[in-house]
Amino acid sequence: MLTEPPPSSPAGADVLADRHRAISRALIGMVRTGLPAAPNPYVVRYLAEHVAEAGIWSELACEPDVLDELAPSAVAAEVLRTEFGRADLPAQIAGALVASHRLSLVEPPERGVVRAVAAARSTGQAPAVPDEGRGRWRLRWSRLRRDPLHVVLTGHGRGVRALAPVGLADGRALLASGSLDGTVRLWNPITGQPVGEPLDGAGGAVLTLAATRLADGRTRLASGGADGTVRLWDPAAGRLTGTLRAHGGAVTALTRLAGPDGRDRLVSGGEDGVIRFWDPATGEPVGAPRTGHRGQVRALTVLPRPDGPDLLLSGSTDHTVRWWDPADPTAGGTVLVADAGPVSAIATFEAADGRRLLATGSMDARVRLWDTSAGPEPVGVFAGHTGPIVAIAVVRLDDGRPVVASGSDDNTVWLWDPATGSTFGDPLTGHTDTVSAAVSVELPDGRSLLATGSADHTLRLWDLTTGQLASRPLTSQLQTVGSVTAVTFGNGRALLATGGFNGQVRLWEPATGDPIGGPFVGHRDWVRALAAVPLPDGRNIVASGSYDGTLRLWDPVSGCPVGGPLVGHSSWVTSVAPVPLPDGRTLLASGSDDTTVRLWDPRTGAPLGEPLLGHTSAVSALVATVTPQGEPILASAGYDATVRLWDPVTGMPLRQPLVGHTGGVSTLAALFLPPARTVLVSGSDDRTVRLWDPVNGQPIGGPLFGHTSWVTALATVRVPGGHPLVVSGSIDGSVRLWDPTDGRQLHVLSLDLDVADLTSVGLRLVIGCEVGLLVLELDPTRLTPGRGGRRWDAGAGA
Fold first, then answer.
1. CA distance 522 to 527
2. Per-residue DSSP letters for 19-72?
3. Residues of the chain scoring pLDDT < 50
4. Which of 19, 294, 447, 544 counts the most CB atoms within 10 A of its CB?
5. How many other β-carbons are positioned within 10 Å of the β-carbon of residue 167?
6. Alpha-carbon distance 728 to 699, whole Å?
7. DSSP character for 473?
């Protein structure tokens, strides 16, 4: 009689994989033939599990429409469980993993472009193969800086301030996060899914976390709060077990330490500069409070000793790191490091040569390495961050090498090789606010992940395997793109021009993303503004404005400067715009942080007249247009919350300033609506978009709401056979499409990219952002005006 091998045997595993493979292929075919109808709920939830068990992610990647129908959380969980950190993922699957938190908010037909952009971020710089897809937008190409594969976990309502690994008695390894929203959440780092309900009742903002083990093997999770208490939780049961009145100010640091009797002690440090020891089983203090620091205790860790009990290390804003002997409750803390800057984070680790090193992060943006058995001088100082360092963690690579990870107020994570002092590639970007917590997560299979928490309300899990780090390309040409514009030639050919953080201007082929020639070099600071300016002889030149306070003119054919820099502003040049006049001439306008607008003759580079005065704060945007009667208008926007209208011929103001925004106006655009109406569009730090009639100076309708942060960029896209549509971009990571005739929001595209600037070439939308450049194409046949949108109230506006 034939019998099947047991599933635990190699042969049995093969049989089981074959079954999952057959089931997966059958379900994939069923979904494919059934589209556009929604699949069976079982398929939506469990097809990813069958694919994972069969090991055929590459086959699912070849079926993007099927992939987009599956539950994003289920796909991400199965990829994390079976592949993350162990194999190279197909681009489509990597994108689904990285963008799972965004995809869950998007209808399946619209997921393709979100997934494609995420894949471009995580799998390299090769041009994306255009995905015909089913959505309104398609990714045509991208030039984006690459990050190691990572996963975003969402759920907290405010910033994440603390992380801690939590090992349970049953062998499970969890990750705990604490937030300013007053909750503690538990996560399965293997799947990225939340475990249980949030632990609420933390008594206000949670600032620090640590896990300890009781004598009977059970785990206690401690959270330190802004209210001065330490709360003890049973993470297995999800309940509060005790509250310790710990400090006279906020509890800013926690750690576990083995006591002389072998039992765990909980140690807390506070804003009051005091360190306290606790018995986590009873909640009682152990010994007297330890004093010695003259500032806040911001960090605690343990220094293992091979010939004695572990020591406690504490870092403080008084610039010192002290060590404490838990066996001697009467001893004061001994200064180990006397000049580390205001210490905000510390970690100890064993180097490859056996030395026990201490890494400190400081408010002076430096990471310092100290040999705990040597003298008082650091053995290494790492500089790269541009803001205070608030988090330090040490992660082991597959080959055993330690990597020091530092998180900063500059929103980045840097990875340092302590043996050489060099960095592993570029900083990890993705967080949009301070990286306030970092921890190494050791998984049961021996892998190590880096977990980071941020004031942007998210946690992120990063794969720092050797292969991922080694494969990251140099990205010197993929700087932040702060400005984009289209340049048209006499033969009808259009190119893209971009301005970068590195002070360079570059040209690109808009259809393919191929660079054209070399960079235009001359500016000494960020190129924040670009414009194409037509000359009387039919040529177009490129005008650039920079934070170095100058404008420059460039010949896009030769890449050479046209004349010298245009000097006149006394601060950053933030905006430039061509200004056509009725007599056929075109002027160049520039706006500056010095609150002025200036006009220039682009043929000679000479200034025209006196600066245009009126704004009381920095000028942030310019656009020129004409009224239906042919009257030229130059509009300027400022951080004084106004839009001002000027006659570019006389330099005199036209009408009163346009007032309505409650924050600085950061971007402008202009369009024409049939039969004969000129419309100005403004975007603001107040998160709104507004439309204006520049002829009568009145708003058109009410503000357009939707963005959750500053509106930074505007563009217009003309649909064949229809009127122009307005596109807005924001640092909330979204691009929104609006119908200017009635204020309807036609579509929201959430890309998880800070949008810096927008322009359009036909139906292609060019997006400059903090990690590079990408081009999307709009499919106007898939627009559904009014769906999920917003209309102005009847009779509102002009």
1. 10
2. HHHHHHHHHHHHHHHHTTSPPPHHHHHHHHHHHHHHT-HHHHHT-HHHHHHS-H
3. 1-4, 125-129, 466-467, 470-477, 785-798
4. 544
5. 15
6. 18
7. P
For 165, the token pair is: 């690994």
Give the model's pLDDT for residue 328: 72
Cis, bond preceding 675 (omega within 30 deg of 0): yes
Let me know: does 361 contact 345? Beta carbons within 8 Å.
Answer: yes
**How far is the C-alpha of 660 from the C-alpha of 794, rounded, in Å?**
20
> Are 500 and 480 contacting, i.e. CB atoms less than 8 angstroms apart?
yes
The 3-state DSSP class for residue 748 equals strand
The candidate with the shortest Cα–Cα distance to 520, out of 562, 575, 488, is 562
Dist CA 714 CA 115 (whole Å): 24
Structure tokens at 696: 């009568």
Global confidence as pTM:
0.85
Q: Which helix (H) or strand (E) holds 379?
A: none
* Run of H or E including 94: helix 91-98
Q: String of b and e for 382-414 (b: at least 16 CB within 10 Å)?
A: bebbeebbbbbbbbbbeeeebbbbbbbbbbbbb
| Environment class of 211 (CB within 10 Å of its CB; exposed 0-12, middle 13-18, buried 19+) | buried
Cα–Cα nearest to 224, from 288, 157, 167, 176 = 176
pLDDT for position 471: 40
Long-range (24+ apart) CB contacts under 8 A made by 487-492 are 487/532, 487/540, 487/542, 487/556, 488/532, 488/540, 489/540, 489/556, 490/538, 490/539
Tokens of 388: 């205070």
Q: What pLDDT sits at residue 133?
A: 65
Strand-pair partners of 597: 591, 612
User: How many helices (H) does the chain have, and how many strands (E)?
Assistant: 9, 55
pLDDT at site 263: 86
Rounded to 5 degrees, φ, ψ at 545 are: -120, 140
Please state the length of the chain.
798
